[in-house]
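Render Lysine--tRNA ligase in 3D.
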Amino acid sequence: MTETPANTPAETPEPTEEDIFEQKAVRLAKRERLMAERTDASGGAYPVSVPVTDTIPALRERFGDLEAGAETGVTAAVAGRVVFSRNTGKLCFATLQSGDGSRIQAMVSLAAVGEESLQQWKELVDLGDHVFVEGEVISSRRGELSIMVATWQIAAKAVLPLPNMYADLSEESRVRSRFLDLIVRDRARQTVVARAKANASVRQTFANHGFLEVETPMLQVQHGGASARPFITNSNAFDTDLYLRIAPELFLKRAVVGGIERVFEINRNFRNEGADSTHSPEFVMIEAYQAYTDYNGIADLTQEIIQNAAIAVTGSTLVTWADGTEYDLGGQWERLPMYGSLSEASGREITPATSLEELVAFANEVGVDLPPHATHGKLVEELWEHFVKPGLTRPTFVMDFPIDTSPLVREHRSIAGVVEKWDLYTRGFELATGYSELIDPVIQRERFIEQAKLAARGDLEAMRIDEEFLRALEHGMPPTGGMGMGIDRLLMAITGLGIRETILFPLVK
């Protein structure tokens, strides 16, 4: 009997739609046969359960060092998806894959299972099927960890074929059919694990600093907490329009007013805006608020959160991206003033006192498009992105933003015309933002009124006046530092992947 290596690449082209249609018809016929022949023991094509006693990863951990041809005398019962199969006269080979990508070879021989069972294997088992096997754990003559099958059973019949296991799926196919991506591609499974590790690390870092995790409403009678266009829905029960939240900020601040002085939420947000390599209409964000600190203290915490997450995912703050590039998230990150860095990079002094007319003229001069409803702050930020952002290579906190683009932030304690806000840039994109929070209810109302004026002029991203939030502030909110960071973008910074790769099931058109 000649053994065929279980992981030999298949030299077969991708099936056409006609091929898939024909394969589905054949597989459905096999399903009908299995259902017709089912018994309480066999369960047909879809048994309720199979008597698994072991897992493929555990067997690989226990017996991974067996010498070629070794026998263990240990009987194991496992199930997995068939990702490779070759049938020869008296011996059939299959590779079974577990959910984490671990594999083991199943060897189905005439001597071990008998002629009828071997023939059924050949006739009924296809690539993609989930199969249960029980038998002795051995190492084949080629050194492949295997189960010499004594009994087997279909655990779930696949009526559609798998894609080619040895050819890359297109990015579009990966995001539209993530379930296939997870079966075929190690990187897809690793990204899911990385995200889980990062989330666990984030929670642990917050716990180490005494933060409490809470949940705030996704459906809100008024959107707020960020400058973004919301999704609108309608409640039949309340007979009113509601908004999917664009941020949890105003509710988390209510919690701080109520005495939860260190609070965070890992929350799902929705913004009715464009989608690209760094933006998704539905995304996950961390927001956190800490009483009796400011934007400097919250920057220290944010750096610690990110560095701990990198270590949890990769074992180091020196991470290697998907394209092989190394990126250093370690050390102390630079804190760069927005106005000072813009003036230096552009060769023209720009300050909070620079007029809107001067900024418009300069933007036209250097070819920077004017943002809709241009204000001093919006133009300063556009110019900064044009001149400074492309030169940032290390993680950098960009400090002290224009006052008119930051309506929820405290004015700078010593620099007129700016607020105590930072944006953290890594890998060329904004990863997080942090504030010394505005806690004066009188000034907050004035800021909301200015935002309402912008909304009245057609700015769809402007905030509205939130009377309930103002009432909470009027009961007294302690000095507080706050931050927000995208979990999807955190994974992008650690792995080097695009946002649609870091989201398990991204929204696609």
